[in-house]
Amino acid sequence: MGCVGSTPKGAPAAGGGGGGKTAEATKKVRKPKPWKHPQPITTGQLRQMRDEFWDTAPHYGGQKEIWDALRVAAESEVALAQTIVESAGVIVSSADLTICYDERGAKYELPKYVLSEPTNLVQES
To answer: What is the pLDDT of residue 20?
Structure first.
């Protein structure tokens, strides 16, 4: 038998009394860890990958308003990103914003390339 506010690992907290939801919703947002793309890419290629993701993201499910809030948060400084996700009611599962949920339990997965630049980013010539 679990605690009153317990939820399965990796699952969003259920509605109702707020159980674990408050702790999840107030998780501190942080910058993603450094990552490396399989091959060096230019800033233009990275921008194109990001644009393609954001253009198609609402088709993965969830609410367009949440996707829009996540995009603004991903393109903002950490302190502003924290404010954005809190005001949009986003439940942050991974502090780097790679996995989030909305208040209805819909999952939002963000690839690292929309959250930060790779270590092997090259300047365009």
So the answer is: 44
